[in-house]
Amino acid sequence: MSLRAAILLLPTLLSAQQLDLLLRGGQVIDGSGSAARTADVGIRNDRIVLVGDGSKAQARRTIDVKGLIVSPGFIDPHAHVLEDLLSNAKKSNEAFLMQGVTTTITGNDGAGPIQSGATLAKWTQQGIGTNAAVYIGQGTVRREVMGMSDAAPSAEQVSKMKTLVARGVDEGAMGMSTGLYYAPGSYATSAEVIELAKAAAAEGGIYDSHLRDEDSYTIGLLGAVSEAIRIAREAKIPVHISHIKALGPEVWGKSAQVIELIRRARAEGLEVTADQYPYTASGSSVTASLVPRWAEVGGNAALIDRIGNPAVRPKLTEEMEANLKRRGGADSLLIISGRDKSLIGKRLAAIAIERHVSPVEAALEIIKNGGAGVASFNMSEPDIENFMRQDWVMTGSDGSEGHPRKYGTFPRKLRIYVNEKKLISLPYAIHSSTSLTAQTLHLADRGLLREGYFADVIAFDPATVADRATYEQPDLLATGMKFVIVNGQIAVEEGKYTGKLAGRALRHARK
User: Fold this and answer.
1) 399-446 pLDDT, tens per residue?
2) Most buried in the list 5, 124, 436, 469, measured by CB within 10 Å?
3) Is 166 helix (H, G, I), strand (E, B) or coil?
């Protein structure tokens, strides 16, 4: 290169070294599990280009973050935001941004869309507030091919389902999710699920599962964990267990046995991980919580017919009584959503008293009138803490309407389990919410504060970060997140959403 050419190129080289944004003086916790260190973070375009001493760097904007923790943006592996991200009203995903979440994964519990490519394209076209990825759902696939039938599929039907799964992953889905507790996914045998999981594995996807049983409904909690491990082994696919828990008094204390099963599987070389939300109440529906799956064969219309059938109703109510006991009784079910708004905020026990009927009769009336969502208070704190300490368990909200976990999961974990109980350290909590998740889900260049990684960065006050959402007011935004940066753009500034739609549709990356 001539001297003249070098001189002409010099301004370009200098300009290329200029940062768009420099975060100065923060306590960097990089997501690896390492302790905090004082460092600057520099961003150019959508990438991190500096983690260290930025005193000589030139930046278009510099933000003083002294006293704040600077970390990778949180990644939620299980968030029910599929419809939110497709709507103009909620595509910002503000409830998650205000928690410091920069990436959400949806389509869980077997309910992911068949047309995963179309979903990803729609997000890209309209813009979204956080990054997002999607699973193709085994329940959706089974319904597409077999309706709400509980019959065993023919060879042709299995072939059709496998083709749909393979196409979904090929179009960009992260893998296949199942909701084996829910109809119609629950009608599939382990062997059927394994065949579909093999199709996902062939495309390099992962297997995400709501277990067939988290209590004692069918095969039991330990049996369901063993089934997930079997699927991982026989399909040769990584398995991720959604919202791991011991659900109900009959299985409280069994977290230790679950952990031992998973430890043995991991020692065998299987990739088995899980996510967890820090609440003692799960989120479900009156129907899913109490109605036996055989009563849902044929769909909701068939269920309503069975409720009104005097020949069937005694058996139905008897099994619902048993399921209610598993849940911890009628006072454990709080209505949080549904067509009848007058029920929201009431326990099933109170509704039954008001109507002068049994709790199961009250539940049946609710189902006939359109159903309702519930918060089900049926977990024990020792089990929650036991799971949280495992190095293969990451943070996940299972965020859905009416439950405070949609607005508060990540700050709640920091507030209670880091700051108050000191069960886990702050670097551990951040690792379980960032790089552990990115590594598990094969999200390239995300989850760590590293040069060359995408600039998904948060800065928060460790003393004031907190969840505000409650069961009575589940949609209160979290506080304490001062800055949330998504792909290099500031989405939250001084604790306020900026209106930026900086998120991207994330597609499965083949190994």
Assistant:
1) 999 999 999 999 999 999 999 999 999 999 999 999 999 999 999 999
2) 436
3) helix
pLDDT digits (tens, 9 = 90+) for 137-163: 999 999 999 999 999 999 999 999 999
pLDDT, tens digit, 9 for 90 and up, residues 443-483: 999 999 999 999 999 999 999 999 999 999 999 999 999 99
Other CB atoms within 10 Å distance of the CB of residue 365:
16
63: β partners: 23
- CB of 278 within 8 A of CB of 388? yes
With beta carbons less than 8 A apart as the criterion, state whether 208 and 178 touch. yes
Which architecture characterizes domain 73-281+378-446 according to CATH? Alpha-Beta Barrel (3.20)
- Residue 276: C-alpha distances to residues 56, 239, 478 (Å): 42, 15, 19
In 466-502, which positions are buried (b, 16+ CB within 10 angstroms) versus exposed (e)? bbbbeeeebebbbbbbbbbbbbbbbbbeebebbebbb
**Block residue for tokens 């886990």:** 424
Q: What mean pLDDT is predicted for residues 74-80? A: 98
- pTM here is 0.94
What ranges do the domains of the chain cover? 73-281+378-446, 284-377
* 134, 82 contact by CB (below 8 A): yes
Find, among 258, 200, 199, 197, the residue nearest to 233 by Cα: 197
